[in-house]
Design brief:
heterodimer, A: about 400 residues, alpha+beta, Alpha-Beta Plaits, 3 domains, twelve-stranded mixed β-sheet, 13 helices, 16 strands, about 55% helix, B: about 230 residues, alpha/beta, Rossmann fold, five-stranded parallel β-sheet, 7 helices, globular, disordered C terminus
């Protein structure tokens, strides 16, 4: 009976109730979206690389090495000699090693010179390998492979010719015009910095700078910027890391990418906390809105409550009626907020994947969300409880007292 | 048996103000229909609310149908009121968003008297009160003022209360409509039902077994002015 009265009463006041449901839905949707985007960004960020046990570069700050080797941000302080790289890649614990050289760009996109082993061993997310949208690996010094975002943003396809620029800045006055490249492969989007990169082979990097090692009769460059290492067993990681860090012949540094990514994410936690605070404030303001509406509403419904009391409804019945109304408002707002976020992330996910190569999965309800829903319901009912209790106890007497004068 | 018995009843809205009501003793036999009149502000509505147990007196006892309601806890009083008292009042509106049947049925449900024959009972009441059966499923807000008042009577009587309290239900009606309303109300009541009606308008007094002024039952030395505040 109370459910029917609550439902009909809410429908009777549908315009004002609708407005508060809308405000609460938006607040819940903002909360859900912030949580979802944060967790997606975190998993994408921490999945920038997987399956790589160590990144080795010249001794510098660990963040600097991480940013320059994985994100193409900044530059390594020095190079690693090929002899040092060769020494460590031949250690018995090492399963594979991929050298990378940096220094050039193409229209703002970082150029990575590497071996074809990069396409075989580099993994991201949950150990997902790189996949080809079109074409294949580079085979000659004129071949270039581009990331999905490069192809999309610059409108490049297979066979497109491009010229690299010297230096790592966005603007360069030195073009390697005498050494044009042809796009032979386009990678599928990964949602990692790989999408924004241009790949050539190691010899091509030397060749555009005027001294191809192959033409000089060597099979390797003199130095590389950094190297990715995969080990046969992860138990060797710390042993090898310490050995590299203590290598007497050259000042080297080895970092664990997973650990460094987590530390970097923690350093960015102020952004996360800021977003959380804003969404909490939005939620708080919508709860205050609901309380205001409830207060005004309870004032207007004193006659209705007095009627119910004289018919035999006790204070607890009125309290339950008001709380059921709050429960229904919150439930509708939560479901609307969920649908709003689900639709929003579905649309945004499609757009982000298509245009920026950033994966954003549509919101999927899970146990945590159910717990969050239950908590919000509990908080709303608790916030409304003192008002409902006051109304159920005092309204009738105030109404009667008012009538008597 | 007595339907109402008041003993040394004293009530004031504020502790530091003179008593609004001071009734040494008054009683009403079961089955009697009593008309109690007094000018506006004399404490008539206050008396009715005390009889409904909606507010407790500062002193004294109220016996209804043999029970001392001043000893009742709030929840006991709510149940007693729902089961035994029908209240017809101009102020007590119908819930506009419920249908006529739901409004009437609400009283039965709150008194735990909801039964399979509730629909039949509602039908009978609507027929007695000359309301067409098709209003049953109409929202109360779509009815005319007169129809709403008749639905309010049906709601007050659906539980077949032993005591009906009537609080100036016709004050906003012209004489003819008020007269028709009163006849309808009294004809719909079971013969053994006790009725106490309060009003400032003595015109309907002849329809009752007894009529008395509130002034006749309050204490002679009372500071209350039965003629008004």
């Amino acid at each position: 009976m109370l459910w029917r009265i609550a439902r009909k009463s809410l429908w009777h006041r549908r315009v004002t109730v609708g407005l508060i449901v809308l405000a609460m839905s938006i607040a819940f949707a903002v909360q859900l979206a912030v949580q979802h985007v944060r967790s997606e960004v975190q998993s994408t960020f921490q999945g920038t690389v997987s399956g790589t046990d160590l990144i080795v570069g010249a001794r510098t700050g660990s963040t600097n090495l991480l940013l320059s080797s994985l994100f193409g941000i900044g530059s390594p302080t020095r190079n690693v000699s090929w002899e040092a790289f060769d020494h460590w890649q031949n250690q018995k614990q090492v399963s594979w090693a991929v050298p990378i050289s940096m220094g050039d760009t193409h229209r703002g996109h970082r150029v990575i010179a590497t071996t074809d082993g990069f396409f075989e061993h580099f993994k991201y997310g949950q150990k997902k390998p790189l996949a080809w949208q079109q074409g294949h690996k580079f085979e000659t010094n004129q071949d270039v492979v581009i990331g999905a975002a490069v192809a999309r943003q610059l409108g490049y396809g297979l066979g497109h010719q491009l010229v690299l620029s010297h230096g790592s800045g966005k603007t360069s006055f030195t073009q390697h015009s005498d050494h044009p490249f042809t796009v032979v492969g386009i990678l599928k989007p990964t949602g990692t910095p790989v999408d924004q990169m241009v790949f050539i082979n190691l010899d091509a990097m030397d060749a555009i700078h005027g001294h191809s090692f192959a033409e000089s009769g060597r099979d390797h460059p003199q130095s590389v910027s950094a190297a990715l290492f995969g080990l046969k067993n992860r138990v060797y990681t710390f042993v090898l890391q310490r050995a590299i860090n203590e290598y007497p012949d050259e000042a080297l540094m080895a970092i664990l990418p997973g650990v460094e990514l987590s530390l970097l994410w923690e350093n960015l936690s102020w952004v996360e906390n800021g977003l959380r605070s804003i969404s909490a404030l939005v939620l708080l303001s919508s709860l205050l809105g609901m309380i205001t509406l409830l207060l005004v509403n309870l004032q207007q419904r004193q006659g209705e409550f007095a009627t119910l009391r004289t018919l035999g409804a006790g204070p607890w019945t009125l309290f339950a009626l008001i709380e059921i109304e709050v429960l229904l408002i919150t439930l509708v707002a939560l479901v609307s907020g969920l649908l709003l976020t689900w639709g929003g992330t579905l649309a945004a996910g499609y757009w982000l994947e298509r245009w920026l190569g950033i994966p954003l999965a549509a919101l999927q309800p899970d146990l945590n969300m159910l717990i969050w829903f239950a908590s919000l319901l509990g908080i709303t009912l608790l916030v409304a409880a003192p008002l409902a209790w006051r109304a159920s106890r005092k309204t009738l007497l105030k109404q009667l007292h008012g009538d008597a004068h | 048996m007595l339907a109402i018995e008041l003993n040394k009843l004293l009530f004031s809205y504020h502790k530091d103000q003179p008593a609004t009501l001071d009734i040494p003793h008054w009683q009403l036999e079961q089955g009697q229909r009593c008309f109690l009149y007094g000018r506006s502000g004399s404490g008539k509505s206050t008396l009715l609310r005390l009889l409904c147990g909606l507010m407790p007196p500062q002193q004294g006892h109220i016996h209804l149908l043999g029970e001392d309601i001043t000893t009742f806890k709030s929840t006991t009083m709510d149940r007693f009121r729902a089961a035994n008292i029908g209240l017809v009042s101009q102020q007590l509106h119908l819930l506009p968003y419920l249908t006529v049947a739901e409004n009437i049925g609400l009283a039965a449900r709150l008194a735990n008297k909801h039964s399979e024959d509730l629909d039949d009972r509602i039908g009978e009441l609507l027929q007695h009160l000359q309301l067409p059966d098709n209003v049953r499923h109409q929202p109360a807000q779509q009815l005319s003022q007169g129809q709403q008042q008749r639905v309010a009577i049906a709601r007050a009587l659906v539980n077949q209360p032993r005591l009906v309290l009537v609080d100036e239900p016709t004050s906003s009606l012209d004489y003819e409509s008020a007269d028709a309303f009163m006849h309808l109300l009294l004809e719909t009541l079971e013969p053994e039902t006790t009725v106490l009606m309060i009003s400032h308008d003595k015109r309907h007094a002849p329809l009752f077994d007894q009529a008395l002024s509130l002034q006749d039952i309050v204490a002679a030395e009372s500071t209350v002015n039965p003629g008004g505040q």
